[in-house]
Amino acid sequence: MQQKEKSLNYKKYFSFYDHLSDSEKEMLERHTNTVTYSKGENIHNGSDVCKGLMVVKSGSLRTYLLSEEGREITLYRIFDGDVCVLSASCVIENITFEVFVDAEEDSEVIILSAAAFSKLMSSNIYVECYAYKLATTSFSNVMWAIQQILFMSFDRRLALFLSEEIKKTGGDTISLTHEQVAKYMGSAREVVSRMLKYFVSEKIVELSRGGIKIIDMQKLERLV
Amino acid sequence: MQQKEKSLNYKKYFSFYDHLSDSEKEMLERHTNTVTYSKGENIHNGSDVCKGLMVVKSGSLRTYLLSEEGREITLYRIFDGDVCVLSASCVIENITFEVFVDAEEDSEVIILSAAAFSKLMSSNIYVECYAYKLATTSFSNVMWAIQQILFMSFDRRLALFLSEEIKKTGGDTISLTHEQVAKYMGSAREVVSRMLKYFVSEKIVELSRGGIKIIDMQKLERLV
């Protein structure tokens, strides 16, 4: 579903707005749309066709790598107000790797089309700079995830995931299945379930249909 | 060893040179030095102190991640004429991860000091853009390496490494120890030795004191 919003606050979503000429502003506005995605829908699939620059208005997106064998490695998630530049990778020639982006919940996304973004990048150094700066921030996010995967032992990683998740959502219960936790962590369900069982035996968490309940936050934090 | 070169071709090494004002050019030249490093010397160690922007004049550098337990993951190598921006990570606020850089051979490196680079970045949008563009290129290089590590099976990875190495150096023999190959691939010596033995049995390579000799390039390429 795609819709035009006359009232969109462009300045809020595109920090380079003040550096645009009148005709560039006009182009930006003409090529920006709000699109809604359903939970689980694929938005960007790593090929050289791409949607453009995305700003999450509501909901959240997940970026990940996908191996030939179908294994997923979650890189990072994008929430309200965050910008996704990897979905515009086709217009940034220095980005040569393939990334996938899915809607993690029902999401509203503001999209500046790839073609318009590309034109603005080549006509305006501030837009170009903005794009590469965003890519550099993504780089740091990705490196964080990669270091978790490559270096940390799995108990620490899972403890860190649970502790960050509970801080994000509040309350004491994480409403995710073991399958979902595994997906977010780039791991396998079996590995997650096994470690959660160990956490239960250590009286750190309790498991129920509703999810994973943290019963000893201090112990969890000590693992991290 | 540090030395001042009056005759340095700044335009060749710093592509933003033409966008600098006279006083910025003067600052660039005053804060650029040629430094020599010995093979194996550590140049940048991931902390927030950093040397600055580096251009390799001769030799080569290696960038890598280092785990708390001392495990190294090689990200990419930098050769003649290439620029290393991660050694200036302290002045690029969006780079928040720690990377290490070593001289892989005796190397001559042109260094623009971190302080001067930082000043030029904040006064000149072209320098800022240059920095983030370089970081984005590093991002792609790193993602390539990471995908090798996370997704490819080890025989393909080793075959790819050997085939790229032989293309780089020419001839038919790779003068590296198993230990060195393991280090470059972020693997263990035992794993490399075991796979090389398998390659020997497949009549793909021959092993000698001098290194690894490729005897069937076609077979090697088929593995890749």
What does this structure look like?
The structure is a homodimer of 224-residue chains. The first copy, chain A, has 224 residues and is an alpha+beta fold. Chain A folds into 2 domains: 2-150, Jelly Rolls, CATH 2.60.120.10; 152-223, Orthogonal Bundle (Arc Repressor Mutant, subunit A), CATH 1.10.10. The first copy, chain A, contains 8 helices and 12 strands. In chain A, the strands form 3 sheets. In chain A, strands 1-2-9-4-7 form a 5-stranded antiparallel beta sheet. In chain A, strands 3-8-5-6 form a 4-stranded antiparallel beta sheet. Chain A has a 3-stranded antiparallel beta sheet with strand order 10-12-11. The radius of gyration of chain A is 20 Å and the shape is elongated. The model of chain A has no long low-confidence stretch (mean pLDDT 87). The A-B interface holds A 65, 67-69, 71, 73, 92, 94-97, 125-126, 128-129, 132-133, 135-140, 142-144, 146-147, 149-151, 186 and B 65, 67-69, 71, 73, 92, 94-97, 125-126, 128-129, 132-133, 135-140, 142-144, 146-147, 149-151, 186.
Short synopsis of the structure:
Chain A has helices spanning 10-13, 22-30, 114-123, 125-151, 154-169, 178-185, 189-201, 217-223, and strands spanning 2-3, 32-37, 42-45, 52-58, 61-66, 72-78, 83-84, 100-103, 107-113, 173-174, 205-208, 211-214. Chain A has 224 residues and is of the alpha+beta class. In chain A, strand 11 and strand 12 (211-214) form a beta hairpin.
